[in-house]
Amino acid sequence: xxxxxxxKIMAVFKAAYPRYYANIDVEEARRVTTLWASMLADYSxxxxxxxxxxxIVSSKFPPTIAEVIEKIQLLTKEPxxxxxxxxxxxxxxxxxxxxxxxxxxRKLPDKVKTAIGNPLMIHEWAKVSAxxxxxxxxxxxxxxxxxxxxxxxxYESLPQSVKKFAEExxxxxxxxxxxxxxNK
Length: 184
Hints:
- This protein is mainly alpha-helical.
- About 75% of the residues lie in helices and about 0% in strands.
- The chain folds into 2 domains: about 5-75, Helicase, Ruva Protein, domain 3 (Orthogonal Bundle); about 85-170, no CATH class.
């Protein structure tokens, strides 16, 4: 989104929340618009405009940049898998987990696989009593799944430039396997 498009969005906010923007001078308005433009540069004008409209009809106060980005993600993302749905998939995989754990693991979505860790977990969970499976294992899995989904959401809300910087730093860091090899 360009500076001019951001200025249009800010004008809409000013019209919707006149008291909040009443005492802002031209220089401060330029700084605010520049900040918003840099933070929303990865999104199209139409997407930000739709998010702004959705926020205006649901909030008595002007939104923050974070709220706009959250609304953009809500409006543009496909529905996320809930922790309950993910556990349901895992529970189904566990039914065939003694002998077919590798195949069952392959069938699961990547998000669920990440929360499980590795195929052997399905095999191990298949050996656990039903009571322990439905309480302890389910609770631990759902907590892990929820945590990973939150981390993913936080990462996705970062500006593209920050993601690129993080990826560059990560690429320069030694991999765990390399560190283990060196320490042998």
